Structure formats: C-alpha cells, structure tokens
C-alpha cells in the first residue's frame, strides 16, 4: 500500500518540479549507494527546492533542533517527568499510560528535584541547545549562502520550548500559513532510537498535522503554502562528531602522567534501553552507539583499550548492560584505577553527566583522582562546525531524510510511527 501511494506521489512530484528534476536526480544518485537497485532509487523522496528570493537565495531556512530537553529550574521537574512518563514512544504503558504515568512522575519528582538542585538548580540542555543552534546557523550562512539566512529553533519533547511553541514561532517568523518556506528537523541525538528521535518526530508530525492540515506529503509544502519539512535523523559516525569526541578524549588523557597514559581504559557510557525495547522492537540505537564508539577509537589510532557500558536505568525491569557504575567498580576491583568515562550518546551536559557520572559513579568510586570524565561537547567549536557540515550536506542533497528512516522496527505496531514515517520519509516509507 505504501509503495502504491509512493508511486502516485512521486509522479505528482516529477510533474511539479521539472526545473529541479535534473539537480534532484543528481543528488539522489549521491545519496544512495551506486549499486542501489533502480527500484530503490526511484523511491527516494526529494525535497523540492523552495523558490529563490530576491537576494538569489532559497532561504530563509528554519533549522529546528530536536531533543528531549530538561527542566531549566527545579520547579519544572514535575511537568518534565509528567510529560516523559506520558510518552508511549518512550515508556509504553498501553491503555494504562494516562493512569500509571502521573503516579510514577509524582512519586519520582522529589528525588529528581534534589538531583537537579545539586547540579546548579536545573538542566543546562536549553542553554546549550540555543547556543549550539545559533552558532551553527552563523556558520551555515557562510558555507551555504544559497539557503541563507538560517534561523535557529529548538523543539524539546518534555520541557520548554515544546514542539507546539516552536511551531507557532515558525508561523510568527513568516513560515507556513500560505507562505511556504523550508524547515529542517535536525535531531540532536547522534544515534537513532525510536524512544528518542522517533518520539520527537512523532510529536512534530502530530503538531504539523494539527496546525497545518491533512496533507500527508512533506514535499507538498510549496503547493499549499505549508512548510516543507526534511529531517536529519542520525549522524552516528560523522567525521566531525568523531573528531570532536576524540579531541576531548585526548585532552583528558593528557591529564594522566605520560608513563600511565597508554594503560588508561576508555569507558564509553550511553543511556541504556529497556531490554523489551531492544528485543521486541529491534531499535537501531545500540548498533549506532557502537558505530560511534568504533569510529572514535579508529580516529584515536586504537591508542587505548576500551569498553562500552550503559547508564541511567530506571525501574525494576532488565535494561541493556553492563551498567556503567558496576563496570567502574569491577575494573577498580581488578586493579584498573585509571579510567576515563566518555558520555557518547548526548551532545551536552545534563543530569546523567553532572549528577550520575560525576557525583555517583566517580564520587562514590573512592578514586576520584584517577577516574575522570571527558568534557561534554557543549560549546566545542569542532562540534559546532560538524553540525554545520552535516546541515550543509543535507541542504544540498535535497533529500527528505536518510534512507534508513523509512524502515520501521520489525516488531513495531505503532500507528504513530507508521503515520509519521509515511509523512517524513514519504516515498521511502515502507513496511
Ligand atoms: C540517547 C539518550 C537517551 C536515551 C536513549 C533515553 C532513553 C530512555 N530514557 C528513559 C527514562 C528517563 N530518562 C530521563 C532523563 C534523561 N534521559 C536522557 C537521554 C536518553 N534517554 C537524558 C539526557 C536525560 C536527562 C535530561 C536532563 O537532565 O536535562 C528520565 C528523567 C530522570 C529520571 O527520572 O531519572 C527518565 C525517567 C527511558 C525509559 C528510556 C528508554 C526507553
Ligand atoms: S518502534 Fe521503531 S519504528 Fe516504531
Ligand atoms: Fe532517558
């Protein structure tokens, strides 16, 4: 059925954008592997270029950073947790969601409020997201003048600014509502999980549908005056990301005496997933996290031994392991006290780095002088340049999203995933 719809939309698209067809076909060839079957090539969704403005640019282009967000003050913790436990894409309680969600959120609030109080009174995610998106847009204006000006936006899943607020800001700034315009949803999770990026995209699709009507094809934006959306959905092994991580690791390694440096063990740490998600749905996240880890070690010339472990388990169910804290304790028990912790699945500081790693894992290890944590990417100029390079490549490729995004998890039964993938992945949406 998806393929049937795809064919119809593709033919409409080809008729509509004859001027861009040559350019689009070229970018399609770049995006897909050169040996990709013709059937796949013809399925790839191409975002039609927005009409040029008087300055000769196709801009303005809205660059929307998607992330989970965090409470900026302790007073926001309850609302943050309420939204988080109400999200069936993150924690599927089924029909009991609206009953169990608030109970767990309320029960958890005092403990989590204390943790945010101890890291300075709130999560720094908003500050870093606004800084990173604004700085990236400045670079993009220089390296991609054809889509300038680039305007930064942030849409958080569980904290302000929420997706609805971001969408209304787009309207205020002249996008959509009959005026068209192009927006790029840029996930700030380098590795794709249906519980993180998938959830943010499902939410974006929901608000797009509510606020801009029923069109089920993002490439129709220019025709009905709604916003033309495309998505940067994953970038786990982008060389710029890898370089930024490697630089921070090298800086931390340099703090150890030279004679001990090569024997320091690198412990990569990523937010864990419940085993139900790993097994049932076949979530891409564990494999993509491993891809980042391998690429960073490759860039370091495999200078040190390393392991990947998983943190932040919530509740009594089994989660993907080994756990970070246990791994640190066990290495120390084996006599390996020089350890560097590397948060590898998030691009700025948050409660899991500032509280869980710094205060719990390192603080309680008894070896805070030899167990260290690398800086999070935060304001790293190498990282912000990488964001701009990723965005520039996406804008010039004119693709709706990565090829991979069109494929649902084998065990997925969610209508939200189905609808949102049909919308964002367009012709690439399958199964
Ligand atoms: C790549 C990162 C993350 C994945 C994957 C992820 C999955 C995931 N998380 C929960 C439950 C909670 N996460 C919480 C906070 C939190 N989670 C991440 C990142 C990922 N989560 C971050 C960065 C944060 C902190 C935000 C901040 O400080 O600003 C919380 C709230 C804190 C707490 O109560 O412990 C919960 C709950 C699940 C169930 C899950 C996978 C399905
Ligand atoms: S849970 Fe992965 S696509 Fe729906
Ligand atoms: Fe989480």
UniProtKB/TrEMBL annotation:
<protein>
    <recommendedName>
        <fullName>Ferrochelatase</fullName>
        <ecNumber>4.98.1.1</ecNumber>
    </recommendedName>
</protein>
<keyword id="KW-0999">Mitochondrion inner membrane</keyword>
<dbReference type="InterPro" id="IPR033644">
    <property type="entry name" value="Ferrochelatase_C"/>
</dbReference>
<keyword id="KW-0408">Iron</keyword>
<dbReference type="InterPro" id="IPR033659">
    <property type="entry name" value="Ferrochelatase_N"/>
</dbReference>
<keyword id="KW-0472">Membrane</keyword>
<dbReference type="GO" id="GO:0004325">
    <property type="term" value="F:ferrochelatase activity"/>
</dbReference>
<dbReference type="InterPro" id="IPR001015">
    <property type="entry name" value="Ferrochelatase"/>
</dbReference>
<keyword id="KW-0350">Heme biosynthesis</keyword>
<comment type="similarity">
    <text>Belongs to the ferrochelatase family.</text>
</comment>
<comment type="pathway">
    <text>Porphyrin-containing compound metabolism; protoheme biosynthesis; protoheme from protoporphyrin-IX: step 1/1.</text>
</comment>
<dbReference type="InterPro" id="IPR019772">
    <property type="entry name" value="Ferrochelatase_AS"/>
</dbReference>
<keyword id="KW-0456">Lyase</keyword>
<dbReference type="Pfam" id="PF00762">
    <property type="entry name" value="Ferrochelatase"/>
</dbReference>
<dbReference type="GO" id="GO:0006783">
    <property type="term" value="P:heme biosynthetic process"/>
</dbReference>
<dbReference type="GO" id="GO:0005743">
    <property type="term" value="C:mitochondrial inner membrane"/>
</dbReference>
<keyword id="KW-0496">Mitochondrion</keyword>
<keyword id="KW-0627">Porphyrin biosynthesis</keyword>
<keyword id="KW-0809">Transit peptide</keyword>
<comment type="function">
    <text>Catalyzes the ferrous insertion into protoporphyrin IX.</text>
</comment>
């Amino acid at each position: 059925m998806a393929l049937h719809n795809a064919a119809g939309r593709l033919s409409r698209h080809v008729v509509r954008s004859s001027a861009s067809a040559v350019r689009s076909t070229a970018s399609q060839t770049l995006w897909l592997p050169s040996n990709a079957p013709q059937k796949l090539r013809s399925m790839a969704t191409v975002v039609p270029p927005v009409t040029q403005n008087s300055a000769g640019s196709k801009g303005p282009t809205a660059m929307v950073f998607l992330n989970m967000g965090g409470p900026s003050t302790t007073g926001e913790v309850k609302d943050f947790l309420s939204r988080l436990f109400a999200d069936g894409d993150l924690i599927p309680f089924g029909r009991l969601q609206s009953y169990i969600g608030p109970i767990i959120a309320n029960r958890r609030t005092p403990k989590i409020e204390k943790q945010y109080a101890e890291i300075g009174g709130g999560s720094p995610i908003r500050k870093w997201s606004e800084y990173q998106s604004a700085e990236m847009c400045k670079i993009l204006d220089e390296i991609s003048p054809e889509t300038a000006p680039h305007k930064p936006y942030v849409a958080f899943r569980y904290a302000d600014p929420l997706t609805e607020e971001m969408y209304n800001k787009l309207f205020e700034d002249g996008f959509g509502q009959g005026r068209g315009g192009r927006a790029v949803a840029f996930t700030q999770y380098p590795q794709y999980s249906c519980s993180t990026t998938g959830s943010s995209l499902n939410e974006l699709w929901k608000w797009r549908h509510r606020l801009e009507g029923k069109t089920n094809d993002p490439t129709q934006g220019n025709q009905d005056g709604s916003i033309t959306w495309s998505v940067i959905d994953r970038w786990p092994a982008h060389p710029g990301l890898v370089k930024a991580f490697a630089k921070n690791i090298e800086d931390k390694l340099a703090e150890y005496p030279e004679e001990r440096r090569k024997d320091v063990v690198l412990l990569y740490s990523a937010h864990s997933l419940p085993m139900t998600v790993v097994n049932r749905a076949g979530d891409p996240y564990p494999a993509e996290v491993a891809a980042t880890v391998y690429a960073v070690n490759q860039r370091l010339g495999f200078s040190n031994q390393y392991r990947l472990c998983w943190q932040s388990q919530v509740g009594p169910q089994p989660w993907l392991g080994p756990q970070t804290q246990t791994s640190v304790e066990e290495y120390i028990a084996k006599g390996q006290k020089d350890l560097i912790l590397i948060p590898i699945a998030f691009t700025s500081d948050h409660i899991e780095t500032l509280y869980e790693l710094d205060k719990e894992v390192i603080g309680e290890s008894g070896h805070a002088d030899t167990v260290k944590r690398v800086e999070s990417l935060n304001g790293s100029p190498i990282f912000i340049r990488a964001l701009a390079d990723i965005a520039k490549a996406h804008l010039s490729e004119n693709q709706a999203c990565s090829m991979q995004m069109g494929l649902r998890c084998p065990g997925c039964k969610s209508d939200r995933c189905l609808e949102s993938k049909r919308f964002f992945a367009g012709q690439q949406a399958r199964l």
